[in-house]
């Protein structure tokens, strides 16, 4: 009988699942990625997967939450709190399009929506709370007052930025200007005018 993993080994295994899974999902999408693909890439038996994740959907949600964490880490690194904060946030959001993380969220948006619709409410609530905590952390780092602001509005405006890339109805010639207007609306909301 194999020895039990330590908590540190379990955490490392969990991270390996997310990292390998993210690589596969970024290339194949959510629908085409199987648990077999994931466990083979990690190099463990399929049954071990369920020690970490109750289902493929919960695993995919963990990947999506990890992608959000990466985006917020980028924001913390790239937003200059000592300079022109508003312009720094604007530049970050405009450049966000070019990241593999945002491209993934945009490209597989329909699959993400299907995934979310199949999750239990408790998992969706956990994801929303996680994302709200990331927004609050960025606001604190940037010393932005949250008392007169609804984080849900900020979240919706930011989601609109990546959803806009996934619509057949979007006029590509006007995409840049449209995104700039959405970002201006977001900044106006956050900074008040």
What does it look like?
This protein is mainly alpha-helical and 193 residues long. The protein folds into 2 domains: 1-53, Homeodomain-like (Arc Repressor Mutant, subunit A), CATH 1.10.10; 55-191. The chain is 70% helix and 0% strand. It has helices at 7-28, 35-42, 46-49, 56-78, 85-95, 100-107, 109-117, 121-141, 151-163, 175-191. α5 runs antiparallel to α10 (175-191). The longest helix has 23 residues, at 56-78. The mean pLDDT is 88.
Which sheet architecture does the biggest sheet show?
A: none
The radius of gyration computed from the alpha-carbon positions, rounded to a whole number of angstroms, is 19 Å
Q: What separation lies between the terminal Cα atoms? A: 65 Å
Helix tally? 10
**Could you say which structural class the secondary elements and strand pairing correspond to?**
mainly alpha
The arrangement of helices and strands along the chain is HHHHHHHHHH
Shape: globular
What share of the residues does DSSP label as strand, in percent?
A: under 5%
Poorly predicted tracts of residues: none
Number of E-type strands? 0
Give the gist of this structure:
With about 190 residues, the protein is an all-alpha fold. The chain is about 70% helix and about 0% strand. It has 2 domains: about 1-55, Homeodomain-like (Arc Repressor Mutant, subunit A); about 55-190.
Key structural traits:
mainly alpha; Arc Repressor Mutant, subunit A; 2 domains; 10 helices; globular
């Amino acid at each position: 009988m194999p020895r039990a993993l330590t908590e540190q080994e379990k955490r490392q295994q969990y991270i390996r699942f997310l990292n390998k899974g993210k690589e596969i999902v970024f290339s194949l999408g959510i629908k085409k990625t199987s648990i077999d693909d994931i466990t083979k890439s990690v190099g463990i038996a399929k049954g071990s997967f369920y020690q970490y994740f109750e289902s493929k959907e919960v695993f995919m949600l963990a990947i999506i939450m990890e992608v959000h964490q990466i985006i917020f880490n980028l924001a913390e690194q790239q937003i200059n709190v000592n300079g022109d904060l508003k312009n720094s946030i604007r530049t970050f959001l405009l450049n966000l399009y070019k990241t593999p993380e945002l491209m993934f969220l945009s490209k597989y948006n329909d699959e993400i929506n299907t995934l979310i619709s199949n999750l239990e409410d408790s998992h969706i609530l956990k994801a929303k709370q996680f994302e709200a905590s990331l927004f609050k952390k960025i606001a604190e780092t940037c010393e932005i007052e949250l008392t007169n602001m609804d984080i849900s509005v900020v979240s919706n405006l930011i989601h609109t930025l990546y959803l806009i890339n996934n619509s057949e109805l979007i006029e590509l010639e006007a995409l840049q200007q449209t995104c700039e207007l959405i970002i201006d609306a977001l900044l106006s909301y956050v900074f008040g005018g």
